[in-house]
Write the structure tokens for this entry.
Amino acid sequence: VYLQLVAVTRAIPFAAGQFAFVSFKHEGLREPHPYTIASAAGADGSIAFMVRSLGDYTARLVQQAQPGLLAEVYAPFGRFQRQADGRQEIWITGGVGITPFIAWLQDCPEPPSTPVTLFHFTTPGCELPAGIDLAGLCARRGVNLVEVTSGPATPAFREQFAQLVAQAGAD
């Protein structure tokens, strides 16, 4: 589920890729849990999180999330920075690990100065929440998106990955 929270009192300043602890004002959801911020900072002070049902707490949250659910957000924490001096960037994600990359893609005002390839490992039936157009975000930012549904051991993935690593000059 993609949770878009709107600031009630004040906007929370954050950078793409940071995380927050979130506590919801609902029975069974009051304990703060960490979530990577899944959005760029907006002028309206909103902040978004992507949540998968992976345990008891997140299963309750996914089931009970609805408009008007109040939350306390403690943020920002951490940093998830890109190296500006790279010749090529290779991003590898899977599951909710895509979250900081979605925030980067939304936050980036122009295409990256170095070539970027995003390998996104997916499991059929576990697609991104509705409203997240990963292919569109990548296209607008000039990022080469490679959807991988077959796993990292397949020859096609291994060959493409090895080629990109060689182009980047890494061993």
